[in-house]
Fold these 2 entries.
Entry 1:
Amino acid sequence: MAAVLLLLPLFAFIFANLFMMNIGKVFIDALAGLNHLIATVFILFFIVPLLARDIESRVCYLLLTPPVSRLQYILGRFTGVVFTFFALMLLLILSGTLFTLLLLQGSLPIYHAGLESSTVASLIFFQLFHYLSLIGITFFIFSWATGMAEIMLFTSAVTFFSWSFPPVLAALKSPEASRDMPVWMNTLLDSIYQILPHLNGNQITLMLGHGISVSLQEIAAYCLEHLTYTAAGVILAALFFRRRDL
Amino acid sequence: MRLSLDHTDRWLFLLLAVTVLCLTFSRQEYIQHQKIAWSSIERTPLWLEQAIWGPAQGVGADIKMLDAMVHYYDAMHQAKNDPEAWQAISRLLFRVQELDPKFLDTYHLGIVVLAYDAGMPEKAVQLALLGAEQLPEDWQTPFTGGFVAYDKLRDYKKAFELMDMAAQRRNAPLLATMLAARFRMKKDSTDIVIAYLKQKMLTLPEEYRDGIRDRIKQLEQQKKFGPGE
């Protein structure tokens, strides 16, 4: 996976060079899209099997010997997974920044308007928080699920929801769309909107790709919202796991 | 693992090569003879596309743009006179615009393709207006849109509006101001155009002012002696 992450910006770089004008923007789009894919693969095919194996093969029995409490086990697993994810994202920041510098030096400014050497780091920083909250929710699912099938099903559903719903919700919240909607539907959408991050992954990628700066207030709100999901996921996971029959 | 090739291996490699060649030729034949179903291109509702692309809508817009370019090539070679083909390309370009409203390539390629190849200048001007609104730093989009409105639609009001918008933007050439004045001449009096140019002279950079002064002189002479002088 580390090798793939080092090569990822190369694919984005090649893809971007198929375009005429906004090469910098396409590079960021492609990198963001590929990183979403990699992060999803990391959750579904690394974290989920790891946690499922702990339950199904009873690996956690070995770990849950007296000096290690269930809370410590959950926190230990979470920390390990998150640090592995951080290390992978750091690799992507390094290789992505390298290709950004190559793009900045190898083409005229008109082709990479808005792109800066720090854009990749900002992009990965935002994506990191998004997937941190998904990891937290995966731990919550793991705390009550019976095995691989359940963890995989519910984690895939949450990942799909986090992928598809925010952009559709943002579109439905536009004045044109909400004008023709019944009042109850608007109220329902408003309620859902209140519990989801207001700045979604799509808006961030487009803003960074076009060189539009994200305000400090938006960044703070975004990070806080995702950290809240993460913390809630891990706390609930600990609560459920401590009461579960193993 | 044995690395040397025996007789059977050689035959198997030959068979593999022939199979790959057959696949390549059949694929080529298929591509050359397939009929593109233009009417079915880009019929997906926007909300579904947004749900599919999720946080990667930018990539969605990029891939749709590539799709538009590929279909443009197909249309130029196979269906130049088929209105369905150009409608499909127009749908693709507007979908790209919806997915990523600030994507420069949509406007720079789309406006010209729609106006001069697809024979849809109204759509081209519509796209230019959307682009001019979304990209306040770009002078080329309203410039091209204004030119299309003048050249293809003979809509002098819209042509002037777009060209004037282009002239007001950063790095716009003097040509934009001059064309805006010419488009205005088509619907307003010479006095109004002279007043417009004088007002422009106050805001434009020093190096542009001589050109505008010359044009004002020309217009004043035209006013005195008539357009023939």
Note: DSSP finds eleven helices and no strands in chain B.
Entry 2:
Amino acid sequence: MLTGRGWWLLLILMLQVAFGAAVSPRFGEGIVVIGLVLLTWFFYEWASFVYRVYFVLPTLTVTREVHDQRKAVPVLWANGEFEVRLKIALRHGDLPYVTIDDWVPFDARVLEGSDSATMIVTAQQAGSFQYLIKCIAPGELRFEGVRVRIADRQGFFYHRVHRREMIVYPVLPRLTGAEGKRRSAKRHNIFPPPGLHRLKQPGGGTELLDLRDYLPGDPPKMIAWKPSARRDKLFTKELESEVPVRCTMFVDASEGVRIGTRGKTKIVRIANLAAGIAEATVGDRDHVGLVVFDETGIQQMRPQRTRRHVIDLLHLLAKAAARSTPLGPFADADALARLSYPIASELYPELMTKSINTTPFGMFWRPASDNRAMRWIAFFSIPLWLFCFTPLVALVGWFAKSKAILEVTVPVLSEVVIPVFRWYLERVFKNVGAPGSILGVILFVLFSIVGFAVLFSVIPGLIWLFNGLAGTMGSSRAERTRRKQLGLLFATLDGDAPGAESHYLHDDQIFARRAQRFLADHQARYPVRLYDARGRYLFRGRPKLDVLAQALNYSVARGRDNELFVLMVDLIDLVDELEPLLQAIRVAVARHHQVILIQPWQDDIPEPPKEAPKNDAIPKRKAERFVERGYRAIIDEVESDFITQYHANYFRLRKEFGRLGVVVLRAEHDETVQMVLDRMDRLRGVGRRR
Amino acid sequence: MSKTPATPPSIYRRLMAPAALNYLILWGVGLGIYFMAMMGKGNMLGAILVIVLAVPGVLARWVISPVMALIITVYLMYDPAFIGLLTLVDSGRVVFLGDGPGFDLNNVVLAASLLAYVIGHYRLNALLHFGMAEDPTPRRPNTTGKRPVRPEKTVPNDELPKTLVVAAACLIVGQAVWYLLALYERSSRPNAYGVGATRLLLVLWGFGLVLLVLVAALTYLRYSRYSRAEADMVLRDTFFQEMRRETDRLQRWRKWFKDRMARQRTAGK
């Protein structure tokens, strides 16, 4: 609570008062009176600040509103600009110097104004400020609350809290106006009634499809009188079948499409595309439905064409886009701790403070048993140590007349120690020369024993000491502090059983998984390992194929006359395992439905060539290139291989689906929405083209 | 078109703003009275020195200014006009004021002037140079290097009058405390120790008592306002501290076993 400035003044004033009181009989009372007056003022300011921290600050309320150009809105749009307005009020008291820092969500960018404001807030006078944000991508904006920092008017005291006022705003995919942008060349003169399109099947529509011979039982009103009169034979009119086209989009929300940089993940691209298709489809008064699926299950919306339905559909897409980065295995626990720690310190300052989330010194001591080298040192030093101390222990046993000690030590002495020492003495005396007397020899032996004993105990002792102390300083200390404090925070937030924090402290995988969940909960991105130790991609998402096939079969079973199924799925890594999906598509095609596959294209992969490359020969002179350009050449080669493989998979995908009459499109293509709409027109079976 | 950051107004312009001007006047009046009071005691040189130190304290955020002013004042009380220092003789014996009654108007005036100066100095510093701890976070790094200052709009009109009332009250309380302490000491004579030592002990006891009460009150306030999560964490932390060695040992064995199993799996056993 006290700042450095405050501590210094307090210290000087206390010294002044003590000194003044001590010398007051000799040099007057001026020193002590000045000190006491200033100290009284200091304590008054302290007491005021404490009152504000403990009694006024808890009554602070923050009201947040997000406005578009006209009014407060509960829902935002991707790429839209919105004004965030905050109102800070107090129930009683005053805060003369308070700074409010808003927690701007990671998926928003401040365009104008500041997300931080310094103000005075009293019970009568509320503070407010606003700033302009832009939503980067569809999903959710999670405002975590505000950081409140208060200080006194002099800067002696400072206090910071995080006022959690968590509120989540859905960010819907931006409507692109795909309906308005379509080509307007009118190829026919008949404008069908809303939502009704002609199908070349006889039905109950209003447009004439064909004439046929009259059959008994045909209603007289259906008789075409003019042709009947001309041919002198009764003809019956057949009218077109007027049914709406139903488009069902299958959106992949599996783990694989959620990897990538903020706002540029595949799921974001898919969501934007699906929103555009939905808008254009409903603009044509057709029905549109949505199936969001991942590796475990689906969320489904049956095709409809109301405005409300489209908004619900956009909400579902926003939820899909808001799904976090997947929790990957084999994550780097320390890297995640470094990411999580500042966020935890900012969002949970009261739980991360060292007064309640302590870091005792002993916690940092590095036990010798954790160190492999230390174990070897102990392995060798302990026998040597015992070897040197055995004669001394035997001596003690002899003086104490302890039979037990002698029984243990004498055999060791006679079998091990004495032969070794004899060998040692022979070597030494041979090189250096023996002492002149027996006493000299005895003294030499004793000094040797003691010397070796000290050597063998002091050196490992020092190593043990330095090894232990190494944990109390530098990066090791910081890492352990982060792990312990975060571990205790996670255990507290989850309401775990006591002792759970020790798992987080010692088990990297448990900690990494929880830290990833923590970051995901707070919408922070984190690195995930994409490949396992054997180089296998970890997010292929094989189970999603079964889920998708099942969902497609379900939709086919409940489909009507003419359905269009738009599959927006990342299948690049699953080209070898497409069979369940292909079977489902065969069923759909057999039922005269149309299927389109939209493959979300990876950001850093260039466009594929027009045709699949035919030359599969291995490029020559690879080894020479590696030798000439070193690692750079290897990296280029790996990148090139990856791109080639990606393109090859894409062409294979096109080939496999092309056999079934399924068009495969890339999601980054500008005309993708338009192509889907064209395909729907083809379904209607008329010459209208956009 | 590139946006160039606006140049902040100069220190003199900021000093002329109404809120800062009020405290500048308070600061100046405090120093003026201090100068006169010290002149009355024959400490002109010392008073000039304090003023020389005080001016950069405001203009250039010289944080040590008030502390230096206090130390010099204490020294001047001990060795008026630096006579001891100038003559290099035993300065402690130059003036002997004797055992005072606990109240001296000159001391009160001096204390009031210094209080005005100290208040003015710190509040001006908060308005001009550095008002609040920076407390940067990874999401909010201080890239500009600017220190947060107290905005002028946060200074209400009645702040200065209230400050003066508080200062007057502190002056009375501070003087009264000393008067009562001296009175108590005088009434309890003869003491086992000398007068100075007795007063020092009384002051130390007083400090101890005040700090004890303060710490107890703050601790109680902190405990009583713990949220459920904070209280939970206190218990968990206590458990951690008490069981740390045992759980460490268990976890070490567990880790060893997991590593061993992982090695065996890798080896295909």
Note: The longest strand of chain A covers residues 197-213.
